[in-house]
């Protein structure tokens, strides 16, 4: 067991070393304090369906500016149209030279039609992911689904999305039900207890990061911590945006990033650190 633990941690640190090159702002090193590496994760809820009261039509442009400024390695996108993911994928490609930018989108389902829930502009509406994977790129697989538990009075059926970047990491996002915290907690428990473990069957040792608007709060009723596995790292923005990650990471820093009034959620930027010295001691 000790040998397996050592091999896993050594592999985890190698993966994070790869990601950290893409994850830090210009002028920053891939290493933090001596012997550590970092990855920056940016959580965004852009309220861009065109139907909600928080819609301004300007949040995608602002999101592009934030991505150019912060240069995250991983971006989780909630409340977006499919074309928004395409536009921000181009921004990520401009920001990161070399390597591969991976983009994925999953539409929420329309209960009434059985098809994709749609933005006012007719595009599919849902959640998205952007990730920059430095060379060598080993391919990727997209996994997604619609939660089996939904609010029968809400025509929008919520979805989850994961990208398996082979040899690098599993990245996941979701936007949980807003009509009932109890339902949101049940969806969270399904995602972390069933969906993500199934996605990770290919390589259970590959690290995973989940970031999303869970419509649950730390210290709320119910408490978001009720659905977080005991071996996961967990951090939040003081409201409903949450980040969780499998073992091997600590939080180096976190902060809200203003969106200039273009959406009703500030973005949430988290820098994760993995300590290579500690891994070698195992």
The helix fraction, in percent, is: 25-40%
Determine and state the CATH class. Alpha Beta
Instruction: Please describe the biggest sheet, giving its number of strands, its sense, and whether it closes into a barrel.
Output: 6 strands, mixed
Tally of structural domains: 1
CA distance, first residue to last residue: 11 Å
What topology, given as strand order, has the largest sheet? 3-5-2-1-14-13
- The class by helix and strand makeup works out as alpha+beta
Order of helices and strands: HEHEHEEEEEEEHEEEEEH
C-alpha-based Rg, rounded:
18 Å
Descriptive report:
With 282 residues, this protein is of the alpha+beta class. The protein has one domain (2-281): 4-Layer Sandwich (Deoxyribonuclease I, Chain A), CATH 3.60.10.10. It has five helices and 14 strands. It has helices spanning 2-23, 59-70, 82-95, 181-199, 276-281; strands at residues 36-45, 74-81, 100-107, 109-110, 125-133, 140-146, 156-157, 159-165, 169-174, 208-213, 233-236, 241-245, 250-257, 267-275. The strands form three sheets. The protein has a six-stranded mixed sheet. The chain has a six-stranded mixed sheet with strand order 6-8-9-10-12-11, covered by helices on one side. A two-stranded antiparallel sheet has the order 4-7. Strand 9 (169-174), helix 4 and strand 10 (208-213) form a beta-alpha-beta unit. Helix 2 runs parallel beside helix 3 (82-95). Residues 1-35 and 276-282 have low confidence and may be disordered.
